[in-house]
Here is the input.
Amino acid sequence: MRHGSGGRVAAIRFRAAGGFLLVAHLLLVGWITLRPLDVPWVSAANLRPLAGIKADLALGGLQAARRIGEALLLLAPLGVLLPLAGGRLVVSPWGSLVRTVAAGALLSLGIELLQTGVPGQVVDIDSLLLNTLGVALAHVAVVPAARARLRRHGDPRRVTALLREEAPQGATPTIPRVGIAP
Here is the structure.
């Protein structure tokens, strides 16, 4: 085994585990949110931000906490699984947060749009907001601390291997005989 190749193997294993768990979670979310429901009536779509949350709060504390908690937790694992599938150990915390939250918001938007064609499912803008907030909270709560711990307790060769793996590939080759078109 070459010097530093153990770090690459560990990075590949983290990425593979993250990718597998990400796909498994997305399949579960798809099954929960996109299966047809057999209901006698369907409420209208909620396109006003925070209207559904206000209605949930009017139901009482326990019922509101359950409904809002479900929406927060549905996509929250993406806040950890997306960076894990990326496998990068040394990265800007803000950049990682923005990328993860944007991906979570786009996935939530896609789910809401797909729900328009599923019987018994209704579009709710508050679900989009709460799903995205759940992704952000999970990311902030877990990812920076986990990355710092892995960097602190990890083998310096592994960190170097992870950094080297993300290095640029060099300059783009050019052909000197080909001129620029007029």
